[in-house]
């Protein structure tokens, strides 16, 4: 399982302090999570009382990918709040301004904290979908 990240690199203008900010991006484990969730959901939707035809699976899968996308919003908001709402960062060592030095993509075998939070939010959204579903029966 390989997770991908976009990493923003920041450097201090006064000292040599650097900082990397990880953002989760769509990677294979997420596609699997969405696929499994879509599989579980179609198991219910393909039966009574919905009786969706088999090709609706693609729509359900697309819906799950959309849920993943939605799960990322709170994380982005959280980043904005902790980052002071701007691109400007303060150096934790000297308090100087940190400037953005570029962004690159990296991979990791081990999930980071953002991945756990994102998958947790994704699960919570799925629970909400299931609860909504059962209230319609
Ligand atoms: Zn500094």
Cross-sheet strand order for the largest sheet: 2-1-4-3
Global mean pLDDT: 89
The number of domains: 1
Structural class: alpha+beta
Order of helices and strands: EEHHEEH
- Taking pLDDT < 50 over at least 5 consecutive residues as the criterion, the unreliable ranges are none
Query: What is the number of E strands?
Result: 4
Key terms for this structure?
four-stranded antiparallel beta sheet, 50% helix, 3 helices, binds zinc ion, 137 residues, 4 strands, alpha+beta
Describe this structure in words.
The chain is of the alpha+beta class. The chain has one domain (3-136). 50% of the residues lie in helices and 23% in strands. The chain has a 4-stranded antiparallel β-sheet. Strand 3 (89-90) and strand 4 form a beta hairpin. Helix 2 crosses helix 3. The mean pLDDT is 89. It binds zinc ion. Zinc ion binds at residues 12, 14-15, 17, 91, 93-94, 96.
């Amino acid at each position: 399982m390989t997770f991908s990240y976009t990493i923003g690199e920041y450097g201090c203008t006064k000292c040599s302090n650097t900082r990397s900010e990880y953002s989760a991006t769509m990677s294979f484990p997420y596609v699997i999570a969405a696929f499994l969730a879509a599989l579980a959901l179609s198991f219910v939707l393909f039966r009574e009382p919905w009786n969706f035809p088999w090709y609706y699976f693609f729509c359900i899968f697309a819906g799950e990918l959309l849920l993943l996308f939605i799960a990322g919003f709170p994380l982005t908001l959280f980043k904005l709040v902790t980052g002071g709402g701007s691109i400007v960062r303060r150096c934790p060592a000297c308090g100087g301004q940190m400037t953005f030095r570029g962004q690159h993509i990296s991979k990791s075998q081990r999930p980071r904290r953002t991945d756990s939070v994102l998958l947790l939010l994704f699960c919570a959204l799925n629970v909400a979908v299931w609860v909504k579903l059962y209230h319609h029966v």
